[in-house]
Amino acid sequence: MDNKFPGKDITNEDLISKFPLAAKKNQNHISKFKVNNTLFGGRVIPIMAGPNMVENEKMIIQIAKYVKKQGAQFLRGGAFKPLSFPYRSPKYNETRELGLKWLAKAKEETGIGIVTEVMEERFIEPIAKVADILQIGSRNMQNYPFITQVAKTGKPILLKRHYGSSLRDFLGAAEYILFEGNKKLILCERGVSIPHTHRSTSRFSLDLQIIPAAKEISHLPIISDPSHATFWRPWVPSMTLASIAAGADGIMLEVHPDPKNAAVDPLQPIDFKDFKKLMSNAKKVASAVNRKII
Ligand code: PEP
Ligand code: MN
């Protein structure tokens, strides 16, 4: 490569001494691994879809059935949530152990894979029993003792980028997981904090450029979460299509049957009808860049 990483953020030396496990060994080095029967790092782009929070049993099963029918391989949804403020109305309450039980039920009834967040060490074990992929949230990306414990489970991990972190810090956190011998690691871009767009409701901005940047130097798959990035439903479809065009190795989407009444972050989920339409458009963009969505 002509640009030998002149040292603005990641230097050539970093690739050798700071994150030798996350760095590519050569240009063709791409990690490929299966979670359940879904291959990450291949031509097919896996889809993870579901509500922000697991709200109740009936709804999570309804969502699991719908997103699976539209082609999603994984159901997303938090039973344990990193809510930004400590105040809770009954509607806003995390469903915790109950939510976990409902996720297990949704999996049992539909066969869909489960990706859900783990925030505390004491819950790693019960969550690992239900989840196919353990999600480490943005806010915990640099909680190194915690992510080390999550890595030790040997379960596949989705590592969300902190919204203020550089690619160098992101790959440093990834290295902690790989260092434990856990190779089933998926990176996730979920928006960064920058001066806002014209909408004060857009908390973050999707950093599409990190997708080719990460893939230039790391072999790890990187997926995109346009729901958290935009925080604004009308922008989710276009940013999903743009993520696919940019080379995303997976998409995470918030889907809710009644978005306006979602318990958490009601501005960001798309409804069933929009999800169906988006999946159909996503297939076209995927095929234009020689990828595939099932
Ligand atoms: C989530 O996916 O529900 C979530 C809280 O994401 P993030 O950690 O990216 O904010
Ligand atoms: Mn959220």
Molecular structure report:
- With about 290 residues, the protein is α/β, with parallel strands linked by helices.
- The protein has ten helices and ten strands.
- It has helices spanning about 10-15, 55-70, 95-110, 125-130, 145-150, 165-180, 210-215, 225-230, 235-245, 270-290; strands spanning about 35, 40, 45-50, 75, 115, 135, 155-160, 185-190, 220-225, 250-255.
- An eight-stranded parallel β-sheet has the order 9-8-7-6-5-4-3-10.
- Helix 6 links the parallel strand 7 (about 155-160) and strand 8.
- Helix 2 runs parallel beside helix 3, helix 5 (about 145-150) packs across helix 6 and helix 9 runs parallel beside helix 10.
- The longest helix has 17 residues, at about 270-290.
- The protein starts with 11 loop residues before the first helix and ends in a 6-residue tail after the last helix.
- Bound molecules: phosphoenolpyruvate and manganese (II) ion (MN).
- Manganese (II) ion binds near residues 52, 228 and 265.
Main traits of this protein?
294 residues; alpha/beta; 8-stranded parallel sheet; two-stranded antiparallel ribbon; 13% strand; globular; binds phosphoenolpyruvate; binds manganese (II) ion
In short:
This protein has 294 residues and is an alpha/beta fold.
User: What's the end-to-end separation, in Å?
Assistant: 34 Å
Average pLDDT across residues? 95
Largest sheet, described in full? 8 strands, parallel
Category by helix and strand content = alpha/beta
Topology as H/E string? HEEEHEHEHEHEHEHEHHEH
- Global geometry: globular
Distinct bound molecules: phosphoenolpyruvate, manganese (II) ion
